[in-house]
Amino acid sequence: MGGMIDIAWLREHPDTLRVALARRGLEMDLDGLIRLDVERRQVRMEAEQDRAEQKRLGLRIRELAGDEKASAVAEASDLAARYREGVAEADRLDRRFSVLWAQVPNLADPSSADGLTEEDGVEIRRWGEVRDFGFPVQDHRRLGSDLGMIDIERAAKVSGSRFGYLMGPAVRLEFALVGMVFDRLEGYGFTPFVPPVLVREEALYGTGFFPDDSGQVYEIPHDGLYLVGTSEVSLAAYHSNEVLDEDRLPLRYAGFSTCFRREAGAHGKDTAGIFRVHQFDKVEMFAFCHPEQSQAEHERLLAIEEEIVQSLEIPYRVVNIAAGDLGASAAKKYDIEAWIPSQGRYREITSCSNTTDFQSRRLRIRYRTAQGNRLVHTLNGTAAAIGRLLIALMENHQQSDGSILVPDALQSHAGFDRIRPPDKA
Which end of the chain has the smaller Cβ count within 10 Å, N or C? Predict the structure, then answer.
């Protein structure tokens, strides 16, 4: 498996790398890595020197005879053995180095917030007015049960915890959301995809989910496949091992898929309802662009996410995620957190990350230039995490009679403007 971040950071700027890791709250033996890098290159160089000497000796042997020739043949044989041993040792050191180097995450952008936890994220702005309901607010689980939209109890019977059935108007709302979002994204130049949700290990490694987040991924060991937690994985790997034409950039894709996450470490968190589940549907934006354009592309993806949430009339805030709370591949990430009335706080409904060349280096995705091939930058952003959007829609648009108003932007796709309790429909 190939590189992660540019090896030049270790060889030429180790102090900068040390500071970058400290921002993420990571302690790594960089001095040991430097020594290992030097050793593996030295061992391979010496092996190649033995190989070159063996070849030179091989040319001389043709001109020798008698004891002199026998001695030269014996020496050549020793050199060949030393070469094989040296290469085997260099390969072993390379594998050891690769395992350790794979644990080094992307360098956090200087503009990422300082801190190590979710609470250290910095709010950038808010949009929308938090509603004064004037009546007792119901959570999405109660609303979903009363309106025949969500069934958690039967899902637990069938599949265990952290699952839910979406039913009736919830299903119609899901596909209304997907239709509305794809209409907007196609207008912005995104190509719609329904990608595979089963992928090989290389795709998860290439996107940085392995080895960092392997505990969150469901495995199908018999087939050597894994269930994706986001279509980012399938979309990023779509161009793996390819050299793209420069004039095709940026490439913008939008993938709809079911996503699967083990939610390891989430015991006791959001156990009621469908906020944190093992299976959910999502529309994900993904972009391949020039390195010089990735910062602007990041802001563009965020603006699209905000436009979608605003069209649904959901109050939210934008948060600049702290360096220590970033995933391995992200240099910078924004979250949009929607106001959830039943909880009295903002909760994440979208994320948007600039992964710079971290994923493209692993997946070997480049583009042609007159000066040679260069790594593209990749970015991803949530256009619609259906379950969480449904929660925000249901709770923010609930009415005193138990019904839910459908925002104007969704009505033409849904075919109705209100969801009423069955006895009032």
Answer: C
- DSSP category for residue 376: P
Which are the catalytic amino acids?
Answer: 261, 276, 348, 351, 388
Distance CA(18)–CA(10), nearest Å, equals 9
Residue with tokens 């699952």: 163
How far apart are the two ends of the chain, measured CA to CA in Å? Answer: 58
Contact between 108 and 44 under an 8 Å Cβ cutoff? The reply is: no
* Residues 49-79: tens digit of each pLDDT: 999 998 888 787 777 777 778 887 888 888 8
308-361 tens-digit pLDDT? 999 999 999 999 999 999 999 999 999 999 999 999 999 999 999 999 999 999
pLDDT tens digits, one per residue of 393-405: 999 999 999 999 9
